[in-house]
Specification:
alpha/beta; Ribosomal Protein S5, domain 2; Rossmann fold; 2 domains; five-stranded parallel β-sheet; four-stranded mixed β-sheet; 22 helices; elongated
């Protein structure tokens, strides 16, 4: 007898339907699985048979043929165990012929019949919603992810026997209630008011948050670069529902949600400097999201920037511009979103104390040059802001009255500036975007300075030989500074502050100009 049911797979963060066909016929006992399945899917034959037998079902020796369609798309993972087992029971006439109709099934089986969590529940739920597949049956450990999708009946199951009993007329599988989305600010357990002194770096952090700009901090060890970077998330506006779904879909695909539903807080990723290219941008034989995609809608922090492998840093250039990464393999091309704020920190030299007021630098010029040569000019050109973070004097650290603005107040200013940006691009008929992602035409349209500002920018650009990209980045930052002040136009003061936040352009900064 032939039985059919519906399941789904995930390619990148996009789900696609997988039609499962199980045919049981007389002949020598065999178990044939076709449809471009990987080892984990093929090994499911052992799991399915053991799970059925340990759940009380006697499987007679038959010739079993299983097809996973479409046959030209590679299937991986163990999520097809449950639908294959149920279709096998239908083919053996142990379940009614229409028992599996109208539902989409997913789940890995343990040898005892338990149903274990899978990856990619949220992208599959979004596909089911879009294609009017109103009932989705998932393992209890990951069903919460799918419950964030409205208009979808999500049922959870923890054991194969429980599912079979429900299909035979017993108690129905529990249905999860829909989880309405509520915006929540990112509470990372730290506040911007913890940072004392360093007013310009804190100002640069607010500008980076308001415009989505990339920021490079340069300074000796112990000046608070990492402390500042970790507080960027606390001043970013809460995620919208669309942003939360996009970020959560990536974590669901990577299996990093841990049973929770939607991500409520913006991601903060800080990979170690020994990360590989694949670990940073994604990839592998079966493509997986990397750190830049896991930081989507949040922050990617690269501490000790020159210590990262040159190849890994160079791989950032394209996704920083396009806000996505496409990984091409022989059988497929997978695109992951990668819209994040890049925050990087570095010492001015190998010993870290070049230009320090506390300790003398031990590095000669050749050593410093080789250290800084690890960073290419094109990569440095992707940073809108690069600032120095000096040591704070001891009296400032001990002064209880020197605490700055709390994150909540700065977050309100950032949210107001972003609202101005979104209204501005909406008037042009475009989707919401930050100043950092404005096209060249849009920059000249909305960030053209007044006569005094243009004169200042041209003089600076000619003196320091700025690239065209650098000029556009100065204009984007100036536009953000004006938005923070709720000013409709960009003036000379905004240009001047934007230029003051680009220390690498100045002679004697110790790093090659961009």
């Amino acid at each position: 007898m032939l039985a059919k049911t519906l399941s789904a797979g995930v390619l990148g963060i996009e789900a696609y339907p997988v039609h499962i066909e199980v045919d049981v016929s007389l002949g020598l006992p065999q178990y044939n699985l076709v449809g471009l399945a990987d080892s984990a899917v093929k090994e499911g034959a052992v799991r399915v048979r053991a799970a059925l037998e340990n759940s009380g079902f006697s499987i007679p020796p038959r010739r079993v043929t299983i097809n996973l369609a479409p046959a030209d798309v590679r299937k991986d993972g163990a999520a097809y165990d449950l639908p294959i087992a149920l279709a096998l029971l239908v083919a053996l006439e142990l379940l009614p012929p229409d028992a599996l109709d109208g539902k989409l099934w997913l789940g890995e089986l343990g040898l005892d019949g338990s149903i274990r969590r899978i990856s990619g529940s949220l992208p599959i739920a979004l596909w089911a919603q879009k294609h009017a597949q109103h009932q989705l049956v998932l393992p209890a450990d990951c069903a919460a992810e799918a419950s964030a999708v409205s208009g979808l009946c999500v049922r959870s199951a923890s054991h194969l026997k429980q599912v079979v009993e429900s299909l035979q007329g017993g108690p129905g599988l529990p249905q999860l209630p829909e989880r309405p989305f509520t915006q929540q600010p990112s509470d990372v357990g730290c506040d911007l008011s913890d940072v004392r002194g360093n007013e310009q770096p804190k100002r640069a952090l607010a500008i980076a948050a308001a415009g989505g700009h990339n920021l490079l901090m340069i300074g000796p060890p112990g000046t608070g670069k990492s402390m500042l970077a970790r507080r960027l998330v606390s001043i970013l506006p809460p995620m919208t529902e669309e942003e939360a779904l996009a970020a959560t879909a990536i974590y669901s695909t990577a299996g990093l949600l841990g049973g929770q539903a939607l991500l409520q807080q913006r991601p903060f990723r800080a990979p170690h400097h020994e990360v590989s290219v694949v670990g940073l941008v994604g990839g592998g034989s079966s493509p997986r999201p990397g750190e830049i995609s896991l930081a989507h809608q949040g922050v990617l922090f690269l501490d000790e920037l020159p210590e990262f492998p040159r190849a890994a840093l160079e791989s950032l250039r394209q996704p920083l511009e396009e806000r996505q990464i496409t990984i091409v393999r022989a059988r497929c091309a997978v695109t992951y979103p990668a819209s994040f704020s890049l925050i990087a920190a570095m010492n001015p030299c190998p010993c870290g104390f070049r230009g320090s007021s506390l300790r003398a630098c031990r590095c000669d010029l050749g050593t410093v040059s080789r250290y800084l040569a690890r960073l290419s000019g094109p990569l440095l050109d992707r940073f809108d802001l690069h600032i120095e973070v000096p040591h704070v004097d001891y009296q400032t650290l001990l002064d209880a009255k020197r605490s700055g603005e709390p994150s909540a107040e700065v977050r309100q200013l950032v949210a107001s500036a972003r609202a101005i940006q979104h209204r501005r691009v909406a008037e042009e008929g475009l989707v919401a975007m930050s100043n950092a992602t404005l096209s060249s035409d849009m920059v000249l349209s909305v960030a053209r300075p007044d006569a005094a500002g243009e004169k200042l920018l041209l003089a600076y650009a000619r003196k320091h030989v700025l690239s065209n990209r650098a000029v556009h980045r100065v204009l984007r930052v100036a536009r953000t500074i004006a938005d923070l002040a709720a000013q409709p136009s960009v003036g000379a003061a905004h240009i001047a502050e934007a230029l003051s936040l680009r220390v690498l352009d100045r002679p004697g900064s110790g790093v090659a100009k961009t």
